[in-house]
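Table S7 (text form). Paired inputs.
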Amino acid sequence: APEAKIAQLLVYGAQVLLVEDTYDVAFDLCYEMCEAEGWYCRNTGINPFTTEGKKTVAYEVAEQLNWDVPDVVVVSVGDGSIISSVYKGFWELHQLGWIERIPRLIGVQAQGSAALVNAWQHNVSAVDMQPIDAHTIADSISAGLPRDRAKALRAVRETNGAYIAVPDEEIVQAIPQLAQQTGVFAEPAAAAVYAGVRRAVQSKAIGTNERVALLITGNGLKDVRRAQESVSGGLRVQPNIASIRQALRLN
């Protein structure tokens, strides 16, 4: 995990244990410890209460658009809990008759952690999915075997959506592109949706006339190092006007 995320836990007094292995191993270890010690496991991959909380983003999107929902909603995907929660929220609104349709859902995964992309492309069921060796700079969506894979596949398949994989290079490029064009500073996992939309438009998975909403799920301050890698450094100047003019080529 990025140091910035760890720091945010430590300043609140949390006791943080850094597992020297992959996310999937750490996930399993956490679950085993909760079972052994009677601790409460709040991991979004298995905890149904987090699904109930995350689904409310669908309510917010619908309400803010006066119940005229987008044609497409794009979500970055790791374990699959957010995209399945978004589907549940829109499904409930549709059942209530508050919206006319459920948006198509497009899930974006990092190319090095694309278990759900592979399953969707080859029509593999959640039961038959096999773990992969996940590796990506987007730590929030790095999962070798997504824990919420059954619901995540259902969300895309039942809305006639799609899963798209993007390489790490495009994720890094998307950080400043998203910030400069929308004013939103996103961490790599969140910026992945912007890279995914570009690919979806190119492959015609998203039409040029469709209304699209991107869920930006993490602030860029959670992983400043990756943001720094995506841009050039600032211009160093001497404390005088001449130096500033020279740096900005105003002479």
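Next pair, protein 2 of 2.
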Amino acid sequence: MDNWITWRKHQRANLLARREAIPEETHHNWSIAISNMLKQGFPILQKMNIGLYWPFRGEYDPRPAANYFKQRGAILALPVIIRKHAPLCFQEWWQEAPMKDGAHGIPVPDNTKPIVIDAVIIPVVGFDQQGYRLGYGSGYYDRTLAESNPRPLIIGVAFETLHLDNVYPQPHDIAMHFIVTEAKIYQTLNNKLIPISINQCAMENTLTAPLRKRRGFPIQRIQPGRT
């Protein structure tokens, strides 16, 4: 697609409006379902340094699930923009951590220590059948993930209503390893999003994550001709 920038801008606005229009009770119930999927499908996160985010504009709130993992041994961190077009810095966060206003007024940790993350829970405006996400368009997560060493486990979280056929990924875009919605857990395999059971997800991560944590998790980028 030649005009992918215009398409993404239009689609992003539509999806944000759709997400912000979700009734409060529905949003609450869907969020609980996503949290339960994360807790049951990713027990390996209990032993990891987890990057998460502060919810914004109707996003799923990952903090309850993240605190569940923290109570079982995980270390949590929130992203901080150090400078424009630079990778994000993840700084340690806990419920009573000192905070300050960051970009767009979103709270960020106030001078807590930097954390090298093993896994990251990423906000999603939209996602497609190949495991790529539509974000807000700044590219911070893609730059951060491309430069991370070792590369973390990437878990996108979104509501099922934000599922698209194609977000027209570009060479700089990085696919997610898993996407969790209120209805399903998806895994990205061979450029395709595959629904898997909670038990399959838990077993896959329990068996492979310790080795990948040391070596880094592979990333998927779009191949020429696949957009």
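The mean pLDDT is 91.
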